[in-house]
């Protein structure tokens, strides 16, 4: 009885962690989906996106799916332990095993993608800059996404301010001006960012910011996934012990 009670308590703890992790992952997926100003939104307005990058568009759906499944298996595990249901415990074990294998594969992909990020983002350069020169200042959706992105990440264009040369925004009116985020705020006295000020300001392109973001977070995300996987292994072991002890 003492051993059974301890196993049930451990089952509650492990499944509580899995449930909370599922809620967090689901929340991140929903946030990325509804965040129209995210960098992924830029890819919607770019033609001929490389296949390696286009797959990142589905990351929000993957996060929501994994988060939802983790919520379900956390609930199943707790119910199986309370009711001492062999069916629930076996179902729990099977689903957790599948999710565990998916998470390990995903963590490996993240480690590999971290090294390929520079190459994949470089492949996007021509298409992204072409879309800026063609539509920035005339297409509201693309202009809004770029403005939010540049303001949030404190960057200018994809590589630098010259990406806006020849764009509708650059050619409108009598002047030849760039978005204000391309100029150091201390160097401009109005809302106009001239070429000479943009050159002196040397604001980094969003390419470099995105690359840094990927490199900084890929290892963290992979480590978290492996941490959740370790909890899942422990939960699977406990569930099988409980399954064996139920008469």
Automatic annotation (TrEMBL):
This is Tetraspanin. GO terms for cellular component: plasma membrane. Its main location: membrane. Pfam families: Tetraspanin. Belongs to the tetraspanin (TM4SF) family. It is found in: Membrane. It is a multi-pass membrane protein. The keyword RNA-binding does not apply. Gene3D superfamilies: Tetraspanin. The lineage of its organism: Eukaryota, Metazoa, Chordata, Craniata, Vertebrata. Keywords: Membrane, Transmembrane, Transmembrane helix. The chain crosses the membrane at residues 12-32, 59-82, 89-113, 218-243.
């Amino acid at each position: 009885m003492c051993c059974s009670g301890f196993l049930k308590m451990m089952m509650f703890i492990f499944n509580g962690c899995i449930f909370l992790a599922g809620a967090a992952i689901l929340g991140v997926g929903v946030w990325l989906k509804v965040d129209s100003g995210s960098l992924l939104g830029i890819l919607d307005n770019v033609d001929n996106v490389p296949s390696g990058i286009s797959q990142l568009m589905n990351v929000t759906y993957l996060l929501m799916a994994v988060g939802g499944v983790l919520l379900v298996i956390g609930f199943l595990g707790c119910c199986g332990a309370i009711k001492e249901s062999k069916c629930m415990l076996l179902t729990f074990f099977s689903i957790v095993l599948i999710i565990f294998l998916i998470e390990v594969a995903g963590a490996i992909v993240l480690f590999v993608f971290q090294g390929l990020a520079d190459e994949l983002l470089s492949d996007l350069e021509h298409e992204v800059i072409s879309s800026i020169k063609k539509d920035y200042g005339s297409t509201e959706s693309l202009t809004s996404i770029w403005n939010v992105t540049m303001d949030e990440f404190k960057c200018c264009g994809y590589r630098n301010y010259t990406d806006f040369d020849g764009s509708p925004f650059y050619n409108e009116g009598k002047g030849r001006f760039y978005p204000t985020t391309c100029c150091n705020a201390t160097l401009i006295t109005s809302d106009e960012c001239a070429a000479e000020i943009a050159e002196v300001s040397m604001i980094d392109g969003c390419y470099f910011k995105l690359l840094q973001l990927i490199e900084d977070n890929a290892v963290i995300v992979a480590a978290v996934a492996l941490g959740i996987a370790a909890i899942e292994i422990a939960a699977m072991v406990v569930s099988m012990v409980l399954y064996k002890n139920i008469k």
